[in-house]
Design a protein that fits this description.
- The protein has 361 residues and is α+β, with helices and mostly antiparallel strands.
- The protein contains eleven helices and twelve strands.
- A hairpin with a 6-residue loop joins strand 11 and strand 12 (328-333).
C-alpha cells in the first residue's frame, strides 16, 4: 500500500507533514469525548529539540476570528453596526471609506487592496526588517491611495488590510487598545491562558516552537537555500490581521465555544455563519470554499467544517470544527508563509481526511 493509500490518523497527519518537508508538525483532534494529540519532527533545527503538541506558535490569520467575534460583540452592544462605514469611524482616512462597511471588511467583500507583500519584502530583505515597528495607520497607508480591487460588495478578495481597519475601528469604538479588549472579552473569560495579541514583544512565550521559512527572492519567489529562522519578529506587521500567539489547545477551545453560540447573540451568530463563495483562484491555500464574518467554511466529502487557516512567516496552521461546535481538529507546522508545495499538499490532505473522519465520530 502506498503512502497516499494509508488512511490518516492524528499521528499520521503530523508525520505526513514532516515527510513533505516541514521541520516539525503537531496535530490535535477533540471529538467531544476524547482529545488526541500528536507531534512529529523538530521544533528547533539548531538544537534538535523535538516538536510537541502543546507548544506556542504564531497563529497568523487565525487572529481574524477573534477580531470578528469582538466586533460582533460590539455590534450586539450597539457600540457600532455592521452597516457602519469605515468613514464613520476613521474619517478622511481611506479614499473610498464612505463606500465600505464593517460587514464587507469582515467577509472580505470590501475590495480593499492587500498591503502584505509590501511588508513581506521588508521582512525578507534583512534580519533587521523583521524588527521594524509598524503602526496600523502606516500599514493601511501603504495601499490607501490604490484603487479598490472591485466595487464594495461585488466581489471577494482576501484582505489583511481590511482586518487592520477593523482593529482600528474597535479601538475607536471602545477607546481601548485592541489587545486589551481581546484579553478582557475573549482570552480571559475563556481561560485561553496561552493566547495573546502581543504588542512590542518579538519573542514567543515559552515553551514554543521555532518558526521557519524558505528563503525568498526580491519578488517573494522561493529560491534555493536552507530554511531561515523567522521565530522572532515584530508582531506589528500583521496586528489585527495575524499577530495572535496561541497553541492548538486554546485555538480548538475557542472554536468550540464560538460555534456553540456562547460568544455572540443568536441573530449575530447567524450572521457569522452566513457565507459568500470564495473564487478558487483567490487564495494561495485551496482550503477556503466560503467565507463568513471572520470564519471559513471548508467542504469535505461528508459535509462542511468551519474554522480558519493561519499562514505567517514561520508557521502554517489551521483549526476546523463541526458547525455545531462539538468536534474540532487543529494542525500546525513550523514552516510558513510560503511553505514548500509538498508541505501544502500534505496540509490539505491532512485536513480533508481528518475533517471527514471528524464528521463520522
Amino acid at each position: 500500500m502506498s503512502d497516499r493509500d494509508q488512511p490518516l490518523d492524528v499521528q499520521g497527519a503530523a508525520d505526513l507533514l514532516v515527510r513533505g518537508g516541514a521541520p516539525g508538525a503537531a496535530a490535535m483532534v477533540d471529538d467531544g469525548s476524547q482529545v488526541r494529540r500528536a507531534s512529529s519532527g523538530l521544533a528547533d533545527l539548531r538544537t534538535g529539540r523535538p516538536m510537541q503538541p502543546d507548544l506556542h506558535f504564531r497563529a497568523g490569520s487565525i487572529t481574524k476570528p477573534f477580531v470578528a467575534t469582538l466586533v460582533l460583540q460590539l455590534v450586539s452592544e450597539d457600540a457600532c453596526s455592521l452597516e457602519d462605514t469605515v468613514e464613520r469611524w476613521l474619517p478622511e482616512f481611506l479614499s473610498d471609506g464612505d463606500r465600505i462597511t464593517i460587514r464587507q471588511l469582515l467577509n472580505h467583500t470590501a475590495g480593499v487592496p492587500q498591503y502584505t507583500d509590501i511588508v513581506w519584502r521588508e521582512l525578507y530583505a534583512s534580519p533587521q526588517g523583521r524588527f521594524r515597528t509598524w503602526s496600523p495607520r502606516e500599514l493601511v497607508a501603504l495601499v490607501a491611495d490604490r484603487p479598490l480591487d472591485f466595487a464594495p460588495g461585488t466581489g471577494w478578495s482576501y484582505s489583511n488590510t481590511g482586518y487592520v481597519l477593523l482593529g482600528m475601528i474597535v479601538e475607536a469604538a471602545t477607546g481601548s487598545r485592541l489587545d486589551r479588549e481581546l484579553a478582557r472579552r475573549i482570552f480571559g473569560p475563556l481561560e485561553l491562558r496561552h493566547t495573546s495579541l502581543p504588542v512590542g514583544i518579538r519573542e514567543l512565550p515559552s515553551p514554543a516552537s521555532r518558526g521557519y521559512s524558505p528563503p525568498l527572492g526580491p519578488e517573494l519567489e522561493v529560491v534555493d537555500g536552507p530554511f531561515e529562522d523567522f521565530t522572532d519578529q515584530d508582531p506589528s506587521s500583521t496586528w489585527a490581521s495575524g499577530a495572535a500567539v496561541s497553541d492548538l489547545g486554546d485555538l480548538t477551545r475557542f472554536f468550540r465555544v464560538l460555534l456553540t453560540g456562547r460568544l455572540v447573540p443568536p441573530g449575530l451568530f447567524t450572521e457569522l455563519l452566513t457565507t459568500v463563495d470564495v473564487p478558487p483562484t483567490s487564495v494561495q491555500l485551496p482550503l477556503l470554499d466560503r467565507y463568513g464574518l471572520g470564519v471559513v467554511e471548508v467542504d469535505t466529502p461528508l459535509g462542511p467544517l468551519v474554522g480558519h487557516p493561519g499562514g505567517i512567516p514561520g508557521f502554517l496552521s489551521m483549526v476546523l470544527s463541526t458547525r455545531d461546535g462539538q468536534r474540532q481538529l487543529g494542525v500546525m507546522t513550523n514552516v510558513g508563509d510560503r511553505a514548500p508545495e509538498p508541505v501544502v499538499d500534505a496540509f490539505i490532505r491532512a485536513f480533508i481526511e481528518l475533517g471527514t473522519r471528524l464528521l463520522t465520530s
